[in-house]
Design brief:
CATH class of the largest domain: Mainly Alpha
Distance between the termini: 64 Å
InterPro entries: Alginate_lyase_dom, Chondroitin_lyas, Ig-like_fold
Oligomer: single chain
Organism: Hymenobacter glaciei
Number of strands: 27
Keywords: Lyase, Signal
Protein name: Alginate lyase domain-containing protein
Number of helices: 14
Shape: elongated
Number of domains: 4
Amino acid sequence: MLLLLLAMLLGIGHVRAQAFRHPGVLNSQAELDFVRAKIANSQQPWKQAFDNLAGSRYSSLTYTASPYATVECGSYNNPNIGCTEMVDDGMAAYSQALMWAYGRDPRHAKIAIAIMNAWSAKYQNNTESNSRLVVAWATPWFVNAAEIIRYTNAGWSGADIARFEGMLGKFLPYVKNDDKPYNNWIHSRVEAQLAIAVFTDDRTEFNEGTARWTKYVRNSIYQQTDAVRPTWASSGLNGIADETCRDLGHLKLGINSMMYAGQIAWEQGVDLFGPEKKRLTDFFELHGGWMTGSKSVPSSVCGGEVVVRQGDAAGIQPPNGGGGAAFEIAYNHLHSRLNYSALPYTLQLINRHRPATAGHWVFKWETLTHGSLPFNLSPANPAPVVSFASPQNGATFTAPAQLVVTVNASDAGGSVASVGLYLNNVFVRNEGTAPYIWNQSVVDAPLTNLAAGTYTLRATATDNAGQTTSTSITVTVQSGGTSTPPTSASGVSGPACGAAGSTVSYSVKPDNYPFRSASWWTNTGAPVNTNAANTSQMSFTLPASATGSSIQVTAGVNIDVAPWYVEYTKTVQVGNCPAGRAQPASEAFPLPFSASTTLHLADHSLIDEVVVYNMKGVEVYRARNLHRADVEVGKALLPGLYVAHLYSSTGLSVVKILKSTEQ
């Protein structure tokens, strides 16, 4: 039991640490490319499905949005003030985005952007009893469109994306509500929550959404092994569902959202289908047999009459059955990927209704996007990898704070085209080349003079193929005069220069995190000798092959709290060290200063790192990987006397600085 619990915890930790894949709601870029190639070669069922999409009113080049500030949706959408328009415009945005993804006509991308911008600029709230349901129906349409447009270089501006994310923030409370926790209502809300989580790179919402999915799938579809048999499962049949006896229309609304939510999780590396494969298979085969007319509905189920829609005079019966459906995602997962069962009735139902088209309120273009879709698709060029070098997640600063942000980004199969930074979903700036640093050589106003509060930093790396990966951290700015500065230095400590062939030693300390263990490496591959008794320490021999150049020493540190793992890197010069030479004088101007002062070395050496200590010897400021002749400090400091340590290739230089209260 202990080992099982440990494995579960490790699995959860891995999911939390994993970066989101974009585009990654219903389709990845590789899957979109797969379908695009099928259409170009006129292969079925994709070509006919695409023709249906192209002929839809939602794909029209004359389509215009009808946004509402307040959408009023009563029971059964009566009153209907903006309810239909909200969903229709979401359907149109997604349809136009698919037309762009498959046909590359920029006119469709512009229409999709115009629809999303129109709603995000005007929308405020939903009211009346159906508000949660309509928001849940509309959200995935909009987000599927947004993922494609945002990550295919379609020309959607950062400001527009930020405003769209603001609209999703207004949607989120509706879709997180768990009242009416039965099929049609709850599964559309879970789908919407997962879609929002992926677009906003919110791992907490994503984990909560996957947990809700499992809970409510088990609440919606009965298995004889369940501890309790609800009244709607009085027949005792495996696979019977909570809305089977209501009507197939409402039943399919919930089941399709259930499948779309599972697909979203799958795109992000989480398999929800596998653990529930028998429950799901029993559902699709039981209802597929009835809906194809292959089997009669037994008298023990709904009195022998399962109806297609409310008000039908008679239930579905052989030989025609009734109630078409697009269950491509379900069939592909349960049969093609899991190889669990032949699912003959489900396949018969799919073939009878191919190609499936989109429809109210949740039915997506499922044959087009997922018909016979292989499950082992992976892009030839893997998505880029991105992480924050500084600040660390959870770091604390003093108001008015100036953040210097450094991001690491790489791409194994190509190159990093750009890295974008966002502060609280507000775009700061793109960096086109490494090192990816903000608010240092260029002043980035959003990162300057931050007031007290909590801030989210998101870095988004885009590679040369247009693939994108994002990661986020949170930092806190405390009110001036009340904050507690860090109590210990952090990062890799050790010599900044050494002779080739000499042995150098380094240690690492994580930023206010409880240390567990560390792994060390260098970018040269030189052997590293880690202290077995204390892995925060190591030594290695500087390689002769690196003479005259700089190398990087990195410590990967495991910690006992989120984010569970952090990395620190130090640049070391090999050879040409100023042995025996006096340290250069360090200077600061102006002194004293009221806002900031500029540090530099008298011999104009480049400063690699600055650490500022108060008169108690406590570190209050640190900036790494600078490589600059002049460094501005002081904006985040309280008035008082400090000692600044300047590290360069020539060694360590020290200067006292004084911040005055005078303005």
